[in-house]
Amino acid sequence: MRQAARLLFGRRARLRWVHLILGGALAMPYVLVGSVIISPFTGSTDVFGSLPLQLGSFGVGLPIAAVTSLFPLTRPLEAAAVRWLCGVDADRLAFGPARTRREKGRTAAWFTLHLGVGGIIAGMSLALPPFAAVLILLPLLSGLRDGRLGLPEVWEQTWVLALAPVAGAVSLAALAGCAAGCGALLARWAPALLGPSPEDRLAAAEAHAADLAVRNRLARELHDSVGHALSAVTLQASAARRVLDSDPEFVREALAAIEDTTRRTVGELDAVLGVLREGDAPGTAPAPTLAADLDGLLRRTRAGGARVSATVDADPETMPPLLSREAYRIVQEGLSNALKHAGERVAVDVRIVRAGGDLEITVENPVTGPAPSRPGGGHGLRGIADRVRLLGGTVTAGPADRTWRLHVRLPIKGPAPGGPA
Predict the structure, then answer these.
(1) Once rounded to an integer, what is the mean pLDDT over residues 254-276?
(2) Residue 113: which pLDDT band, with cuts at 50, 70 and 90?
(3) Residues 240 and 311 occupy one common structural domain
(4) How confident is the model at residue 350 (pLDDT cuts 50, 70, 90)?
(5) Do the domain assignments include residue 397?
(6) Of the candidates 309, 331, 350, 345, the residue with the CA atom closest to the CA atom of residue 388
(7) Residue 419: inside a domain, yes or no?
(8) How would you label 43-77 residue by residue, b for 16+ Cβ within 10 Å and e otherwise?
(9) Residue 245 belongs to what domain range?
């Protein structure tokens, strides 16, 4: 019983009832236009004095409503009303103007349906409550039964007086049931008629995929840039603290490397975060590349005590900018992993060579024991794999003969002038 009462008179049912009455209110101007149109054909000057003529005016007005639904704001307004009053999820509705012929047809069908069903429910809502009130009060008010209202004599019979309140209550329940049922049907049909078209869904999916791609790219940039900087600065500061009294020159170099690392990282961080600030212009710090900062990256890594040997058999100046940038991040992440897992005094071998039409990057360091675990796990190798996959290359990483080896092969677009074949 409580469930039935909630379905008929609950908040959602009441809001949908309001939505139907709004549809009836919107239908009234079209009914008036319809009455003007049919009046000359019927010869009647009082169209609203006849129920058939009222229904005829209603029927003539609905096609006019379908035509006016082509107004661009119809679908956004109807979708907003359906969302708030009918309880339909926003992602199942389209809030932009209907543009294609199919969308306009679906919008016209919905608008006609809303006004048609709403007009019927609104009419019932105006007529049934007073009639039901008369039936409910009929046994109590003798003035209604003395013939002055022109009621049939059958109303004077005892069984009619006994059943009148029941009939009144049933008519109110029937009105609520009709309103709840029609509201539920409109809520079910709304996504089909006001929902996004397949083209809209495809465009939304593409926009979502593009947004995810941007977020993933920014996450990789933040991880590689900030993660490497924090690792390098931590090791540099630790090494400087241990030799603070015995090797002042090393301390000065370490502090200079810390200053340089943090300054560059702040610039990169500002550039990345500028993309995330809605309405702000991106930062102006350029993304690092092999051509611009490979020597600086190696120098700052060595300043923390790591013994880094580098072999570069490729000209970074001739590489495409995208390849040079992604290769820089791969080398940076390889060095970061070596420092994190093998310690600050680790010997790291970096090789960057061109082999035919590919650029090969290899980072190796000895494995002295199991790699220490870090809270939350690491995402560096996953980021490298994402970068390599986007460039159409291959990557392998893992221990081999007590050596951790990262090997990446990236295709170079077109020949590199001046570089070895």
Answers:
(1) 71
(2) very high
(3) yes
(4) very high
(5) yes
(6) 331
(7) no
(8) eeeebeeeeebbebbbebbbebbbeebeeeebbbe
(9) 205-411
